Amino acid sequence: MRLLAFRVGDEVRYGIARGNDVEEIRSILEPRETGRTFSLGEVVLAPPLIPTAIFCTLVNSPRMLGVSTREEAREMLGRPKYFLKLPTIVVGPGEPVVAPRTGIRPEVEVGVVVAKRLKNASRREARDAVLGFTLFNDVTAPGEFPHDHYHAYRRDPADGKVKRVFVRGPHFRNKNRDTFAPMGPWIVTADEMGGLEGVVLRSFYGEMLVQEGSTDELVYGYDELIAELSTIVTVPPLSVVTTGTVGYSNVEDVSEYVLEPRETVMAVEADRIGRLENPVVPEGAEARL
Fold it and tell me: Domains in the chain, ordered, with CATH?
């Protein structure tokens, strides 16, 4: 099934997309039909859910680490790395993304919707708890990252001496900005999706192809990410865990890859899920919206 949310006036309702029709349901966790039908072409899609939490995987592909093999990437990472995005910054299909003057870039990812509370889960329990999969654009502003860098006196593990060192700081200003979490256009349920093997992922900035890769590149599978996460914190129902992105080709340092802010359309797409498009509005121009 393709589960979605749509707006009727100021009210958000939920439905199942069947061909060109939307059969209204009570909620994405209670897909009982109400008997009302809408045309898919006439409804305004909303984010398929506002998650209780968004757990993003920071790096999960060789290209994002600057290496060529999953084995080398796994050895470098040790364990999955996570950061949080705020549910308040989620936007849906067609909603604008505000680009700061320092630039912006898309990061195509799969958002895994977890339906059940998980704590210390096995990989099998993690898979069984998944409601489905949606597209997630982990929009990033690399030019804002330096504002979270700082210096501090820390002990150098190489010689045991406390000295002034450079610290890159948290991923906050470059990741947690209003509109920086586009999600949608719907949730493809786990039974229909059948897993994430061999899913081709792409991102676009205007007509330019920015990323193209496959979920087969990912170092940690979605079930491994969720299981490991549940050993750190209780994963609440209706949270989203993202898979991490596939990286950028022919870039010396992917962390520096940035695109000029301009009025265009940013899009991410995935086989068997669909395509998510959002207009880009340069900072300062959003007042015209």
Answer: 1-46 (2.30.30.370), 48-288 (3.90.850.10)
